[in-house]
Description:
The structure holds two protein chains of two kinds.
Chain A lengths: L3 E2 L4 E5 L4 E7 L6 E7 L6 E7 L4 E4 L2 E6 L4 E6 L8 E8 L8 E2 L3 E6 L1
Parallel strand pairs in A: 2-11
Antiparallel strand pairs in A: 1-3, 3-8, 4-5, 4-9, 6-7, 7-8, 9-10, 9-11
Chain B lengths: L4 E3 L2 E4 L5 E6 L6 E8 L3 E9 L2 E5 L6 E5 L5 E5 L8 E8 L7 E2 L3 E5 L1
Parallel strand pairs in B: 2-11
Antiparallel strand pairs in B: 1-3, 3-8, 4-5, 4-9, 5-6, 7-8, 9-10, 9-11
Amino acid sequence: DQQVKQNSPSLSVQEGRISILNCDYTNSMFDYFLWYKKYPAEGPTFLISISSIKDKNEDGRFTVFLNKSAKHLSLHIVPSQPGDSAVYFCAASPVYNTDKLIFGTGTRLQVFP
Amino acid sequence: KAGVTQTPRYLIKTRGQQVTLSCSPISGHRSVSWYQQTPGQGLQFLFEYFSETQRNKGNFPGRFSGRQFSNSRSEMNVSTLELGDSALYLCASSPRENYGYTFGSGTRLTVV
């Protein structure tokens, strides 16, 4: 059973516009959430995180929103750039321990000019 | 449907030994990729296989090798183990390259 779900396998966005990547989870014990970015033939690299005590975390063009009651988080990229084209993974953990991460299946973002 | 299965879950080896880890992908998935996760380095790409062919290889020494069988199951082998090889090794399968990855729970390797 997939505890972390990314229901959109791909997303295309025009350069300069907002990209919104969504993630849903089922385990109410998840306490820490991360987004990773992955280029082909590379490992996922950490992008941004949020703990359950917050509902928003911002880092430059990247903002993650957490809605605990809906068990939903989203990653906003504004403005989107062609270099943002990659696969984005949502991951969740019951504790602040990356060994316990449960990954979603990823959303492939394509930013076109 | 069954997820990605990695065996064993935990392993303790001594320096100089060799180890083989196994990954069974989701049925129908033909791509399998391997990653090493350590607290300091994060998730590092090891290699990726598609239809029994190694498509990409990360920046790891030749002691790290892998293969994929005709049923898409994959193994990775680490020879002459070093203390620094202690890590969580994750396998992910996908129906095609760069799309729809599903991660296994990992194999925790400890080298003593």
